[in-house]
From TrEMBL:
<protein>
    <recommendedName>
        <fullName>Large ribosomal subunit protein uL30m</fullName>
    </recommendedName>
</protein>
<dbReference type="GO" id="GO:0015934">
    <property type="term" value="C:large ribosomal subunit"/>
</dbReference>
<dbReference type="Pfam" id="PF00327">
    <property type="entry name" value="Ribosomal_L30"/>
</dbReference>
<dbReference type="InterPro" id="IPR005996">
    <property type="entry name" value="Ribosomal_uL30_bac-type"/>
</dbReference>
<comment type="similarity">
    <text>Belongs to the universal ribosomal protein uL30 family.</text>
</comment>
<dbReference type="InterPro" id="IPR016082">
    <property type="entry name" value="Ribosomal_uL30_ferredoxin-like"/>
</dbReference>
<keyword id="KW-0687">Ribonucleoprotein</keyword>
<dbReference type="GO" id="GO:0005739">
    <property type="term" value="C:mitochondrion"/>
</dbReference>
<feature type="domain" description="Large ribosomal subunit protein uL30-like ferredoxin-like fold">
    <location>
        <begin position="20"/>
        <end position="69"/>
    </location>
</feature>
<keyword id="KW-0689">Ribosomal protein</keyword>
<dbReference type="GO" id="GO:0003735">
    <property type="term" value="F:structural constituent of ribosome"/>
</dbReference>
<dbReference type="InterPro" id="IPR036919">
    <property type="entry name" value="Ribo_uL30_ferredoxin-like_sf"/>
</dbReference>
<dbReference type="GO" id="GO:0006412">
    <property type="term" value="P:translation"/>
</dbReference>
Length: 107
C-alpha cells in the first residue's frame, strides 16, 4: 500500500505555511544522502512527526526522501488525528436483555 494512501485524510489539499512530515519507512538500507537528509529534518524513528515551515529548501529536502516520508498540511494532519481519536474512543457497552421464558410457553 502506498504510504500516502495510508495517511490520506478526507480534506482538500490547500497551501499551508507549515508542513507535517512523518517518517513511514525505515532508515536502514537507505543511501547515506537520504539518511543525512532525514537527520537534518530531525526524523530518527518511524512514525515520528515533525513540523517544518513550507520553504523551498525544505521542499527540496522532501523531494529527495519522498518515498520514505508522508507530507501533510495542517488541515490534513488535524483531520487524520481526529479520525484516529474517533476510532479509539470508548463506545457505549452493548446491553442484551434476555426476557425470561414464561411457564405457559414452554409446555
Amino acid at each position: 500500500m502506498n504510504a500516502f494512501k495510508a495517511y490520506k485524510a478526507c480534506v482538500p489539499i490547500t497551501w499551508s505555511p507549515n508542513l507535517y512530515i512523518t517518517l513511514v519507512r525505515g532508515i536502514p538500507g537507505t543511501r547515506r544522502l537520504h539518511r543525512r537528509t532525514l537527520e537534518a529534518l530531525c526524523l530518527g524513528k518511524c512514525n515520528r512527526t515533525v513540523v517544518r515551515s513550507n520553504t523551498p529548501s525544505i521542499r527540496g529536502m522532501l523531494q529527495q526522501v519522498k518515498r520514505l516520508v508522508v507530507i501533510e498540511t495542517e488541515e490534513m494532519y488535524k483531520a487524520r488525528k481526529e479520525k484516529d481519536a474517533n476510532q479509539r474512543a470508548l463506545r457505549p457497552p452493548l446491553v442484551i436483555r434476555h426476557l425470561p421464558v414464561s411457564a405457559s410457553n414452554s409446555s
